[in-house]
Amino acid sequence: MQTTPLPIVDAHQHFWNLDRNRHPWLSDPEPIPFRYGSYAALRRNYLPADYRRDTARHRIAATVHVEAEFEPARPVAETDWLTALAAAEGLPSACVAQAWLDRDDVADVLAAQAARPLVRGIRHKPRSAATPDAARRGAPGSMDCPVWRGGYALLARHGLSFDLQTPWWHMDAAAALAIDFPDTPIIINHAALPSDRSAEGLAAWRAGLATAARAPNVALKISGLGLPGQDWRYDANGPVIRDAIAIFGPERCLFASNFPVDSLIGSYDAIVDGFLRAIADRPEAEQRLLLHDNAVRVYRL
């Protein structure tokens, strides 16, 4: 399949240099539980030359680097490394930086991150339940936690957005957060992780997305749709893409690759081709929104 002539902003990708920097999940000997299973193939440097090789068939206009769980004691060091990388290599175009919203140093870290021109937003994964049945509101470290919210409240002061990675069974808390802090844009990562592809699981996922979509300051990144032990397949992921766009609308959805993480389940070409197939029946203006314009607006590129 030939690629679309439309330019793409990849709204979620990662770089790392394990020779220079420590990412505990990649650098430490003991692996962590991971939703795709083994991630041994990711324990290698991934830099702009690697990304350009993987994306060679496509018109990548810009990329947004999302914090890659860099050494948590030095969150600003990742941003400084990325700034030097962008100056030398032209990528990334912007970044979503790390900050721990419930840590004592959050005010200083946010001020330092916001002072870096590459930074557009922050990601800190709130505490989440492992299953829908275990989900409870109000847990320490969750989106309801007063300490966590105290840090979150500082984002608006710096004009920062928030990238939210949490499963769909916490979309009620996400909606409440968006309503309580209307000046802070939220971008939900990885389509709220629809890992259960049963009819019941997808129905519950759609209901969760609909809850979050009621808040006008919430957008959705359509990425990270892989399933453990399976190659990226259109028959599994195409309906998810179409449902996500139907719920949030083409004005609030963004394409993203999650590379190189999603290289574990598919090539860049397979992921882009599947997304293009899912949106092929939409007008070109909407395709442009999904592939490029929404990310330019949301991340102020």
From TrEMBL:
Question: What highest taxon heads this organism's lineage?
Answer: Bacteria
Q: GO terms for molecular function, please?
A: hydrolase activity
Q: Which residues form the Amidohydrolase-related domain?
A: 9-301
PANTHER family with a match to the protein in the record: AMIDOHYDROLASE, BLL3371 PROTEIN
Which family would the database say this protein is a member of?
Belongs to the metallo-dependent hydrolases superfamily.
Q: What name does UniProt use for this protein?
A: Amidohydrolase family protein
Which species is this record about?
A: Limobrevibacterium gyesilva
